[in-house]
TrEMBL record:
<keyword id="KW-0328">Glycosyltransferase</keyword>
<feature type="domain" description="Phosphoribosyltransferase">
    <location>
        <begin position="15"/>
        <end position="218"/>
    </location>
</feature>
<protein>
    <submittedName>
        <fullName>Uracil phosphoribosyltransferase</fullName>
    </submittedName>
</protein>
<dbReference type="InterPro" id="IPR029057">
    <property type="entry name" value="PRTase-like"/>
</dbReference>
<dbReference type="Pfam" id="PF14681">
    <property type="entry name" value="UPRTase"/>
</dbReference>
<dbReference type="InterPro" id="IPR000836">
    <property type="entry name" value="PRTase_dom"/>
</dbReference>
<keyword id="KW-0808">Transferase</keyword>
<dbReference type="GO" id="GO:0016757">
    <property type="term" value="F:glycosyltransferase activity"/>
</dbReference>
């Protein structure tokens, strides 16, 4: 599946540096200790958050430096909100709070219905003025894209402009990218890795396992 048309427009892939590959090597190791998984994945999450913030609108701001000169600077031009998809998305919340002090945080809980196999909304709590905000939606894994589509639609139903949604995603596959970008072409996706494909059980290949279970220590 070709996703070339989405790269650099809808999808913003972190530069595939040697450092990033080294970090991924640690956390993809099935024998990685949990403390290593958490530490090195949080380093990547910080990179993702910084890249997502860079996609937001800025306006000019001039300040005076300590030596009496003007500096032609910038400042963020709107209000911001983070929305992790519970539970795995909460693994990314700490790094967002670390760089955006006092940021408003909403929550969405969706799980796949065992009968219909479709995402089902169990809980949401969003700021009253979320329609006026730029939203960083946090979810580590974008596989089939079903949960992401449902979460984005929930944000749209609450008045958030599609172009104001930045989906911060740790790891994804071409199938998930195509699903989200075809339905919501104005949503921007920031990710650190694009896997080869999904297998017959919808697992990413070569993959990383269940991110939330490994991060929170509930893996078997």
């Amino acid at each position: 599946m070709s996703i070339e048309k989405y790269l650099g427009r809808n999808v913003h892939l972190l530069p595939q540096t040697n450092q990033l590959r080294a970090l991924h090597t640690v956390i993809r190791d099935r024998d990685a200790r949990r403390e290593d998984f958490v530490f090195y994945s949080e380093r990547i999450i910080r990179m993702l958050v910084e890249a997502g913030l860079d996609l937001l609108p800025f306006e000019e701001r001039i300040v005076e430096t300590p030596v009496g000169r003007e500096y032609q600077g910038l400042r963020f031009a709107g209000k911001l909100c983070g929305v992790p998809i519970i539970r795995a998305g909460e693994s990314m919340e700490g790094q967002l709070r670390a760089v955006c002090r006092g940021i408003r945080i909403g929550k969405i809980l969706m799980q796949r219905d065992k009968v219909t196999k479709l995402p089902k909304l169990y809980y949401s709590n969003l700021p009253d003025d979320i329609a006026e905000r730029h939203v960083l939606m946090l979810e580590p894994m974008l596989a089939t894209g079903g949960t992401a589509l449902a979460a984005i639609q929930l944000l749209l139903d609450h008045g958030v402009a599609e172009e104001n949604i930045v989906f911060i995603n740790f790891i994804t596959v071409p199938e998930g990218i195509a699903t989200v970008c075809e339905r919501y072409p104005k949503v921007k996706i920031v990710t650190s890795a694009i896997e080869e494909r999904l297998n017959e059980n919808a697992y990413m290949m070569p993959g990383i396992g269940d991110f939330g279970d490994r991060f929170f220590g509930t893996d078997k």
